[in-house]
């Protein structure tokens, strides 16, 4: 039985939805349990339900101070552990565990080792406790110096190693600042200039994603990121920018690609930011319309803020066209060594 991934989501009505991605026509019956232990063999688990469906929903109260995990128990197969894909953390909307994705060589990314997110500046007290209980050993911030100065991350724990690896993504930084009503003017002027040249927001975002592949600042930032992540002493690791979409999205596309996650799952993982901020997106589009009084400018600004498959696909296509595979790109341009590659696999993968 091949399961590409299983994941849970918090729904608006207080229910939890479990999604199981598989090519199987019919799943065998399974028992679903929940636990606070990141261990598929734990004895400390509580029964929820029995089903054979690939999607189930149920009323559930999750822990507000630490990750909740779920276990699928099949009669003739190994149990499968998974968790909430988008973690319910007050003050953050895009904190995600990348665990559970099946690789093309029959492995699976471990849960609870690498997280991606939006910035931590707005963490509420209970959210602060939740993030502290992730047991992080490193936080990598992809934001630029001005962003970090204006909206610094709180100190979660002095023992956590913190790194700032800035790929100099001006478009992403401007889009982030435009989320504040008082800082959108620069972006509006840029939008007017671009539209006058016949350019769209999509064009600018695609250029940015392609520039990540080879710009000196980007190569340095993402090389450093891979080398830190390859050291087990820095795991678990949380890596973020402002919204957790573009800079973080490129970094995780590279990491997951090195680990042989199929390209369709790379795009799927990138696109989860759209799900994470669907309500926020609707609010900001209306805000852009009110700010500008011009639909064309608002559409341009919104494109920089939105999550679209063609953005990450542009960088994947450029990498595969010029280097063959993401692994070859990482070895040729990011300086990934064989020992670092093996360390990443040992730390982050388990048998599917």
UniProtKB/TrEMBL annotation:
It holds the Pfam family Y_phosphatase3. Transmembrane segments: none annotated. PANTHER family: TYROSINE SPECIFIC PROTEIN PHOSPHATASES DOMAIN-CONTAINING PROTEIN, TYROSINE-PROTEIN PHOSPHATASE. Belongs to the protein-tyrosine phosphatase family. This is Tyrosine-protein phosphatase. The lineage of its organism: Bacteria, Bacillati, Bacillota, Bacilli, Lactobacillales. GO terms for molecular function: phosphoprotein phosphatase activity. It comes from Lactobacillus helsingborgensis.
